[in-house]
Amino acid sequence: MNTYSPYSSVTENFTYPSPPTSASVTVFYDLGDTVVAAVTPTLVSGNTYSITINDDLLGAAGIYRLKWSCTISSSPFYSYTEFRVEDVYVTSSDFFSEFPEFDVPEFTSKFANIEKLARRIIDTYTGQDFQFIKNKTYKYDGNDRQKISLGQRLNSFSSVYLDESDYTDKVEIDFRTKYFLKLLQQYPYPDSRRDDLQPVIFTKNAIVYVTGDWGWISVPTQITEAAKLLIVDLFDDTRREHFRYGITKIEQGNNRLEFDKGIYNSTGNIDVDILLMDYIYWTMDYVY
Fold it and tell me: d(Cα 129, Cα 6) in Å, to the nearest integer?
């Protein structure tokens, strides 16, 4: 699967199994949004066609799916391809500027793969990623409570619906975390403040649709610094000191290693763990 940076123009090719007629391609975002309605692709050569997607349509990180449709010998045909849009946590220029000892072909040739690996370690450890998803809709199940855990950071919302009802003016983002959507208390009259009123809730079995800008508008500095340290570790095995990776005891005779139990909740680098500490996403809920 090809990977591109956000807001980059993308050209994708597809080769039909036989000469097609009435060829078309539609581009979907992985939440189901249609990014490009059915258009006629451009013939490259033979049975190979291409589509170019404008950069302003690719502002959301995630998976994009292309449906290539046509008619072959009077029979309908379609197939899917995919590409990914995602931001890096540290650019090669920034990394090699800070660590010039690695600015040699041995390391520059594999930087992209190593940076991606460091990014996946950070995402797994923190329970979230640090991409930006612009103007997309997620849906959630009601829970009979005043708050819904969104599972990801919500920067701002343009609309919120509870099934068919518009709740845009009845909700707010929990400003302390931005990971929860909260219903505002609604009173039947402007001056009413009765204590016996039941609070409004996100009704169970209802579907809540939230449209807005999600994730991180820019990668936090701590995440970039953590990525740099992980890349250094992944590049240079000699930097992987035993105690950094939780080894508390070594017995050479029997080749026995003892690990600190905390290593199972670590990226493998204590310095990185500290940088990521404030970005670990915990899902807390009531216990019945």
Answer: 15
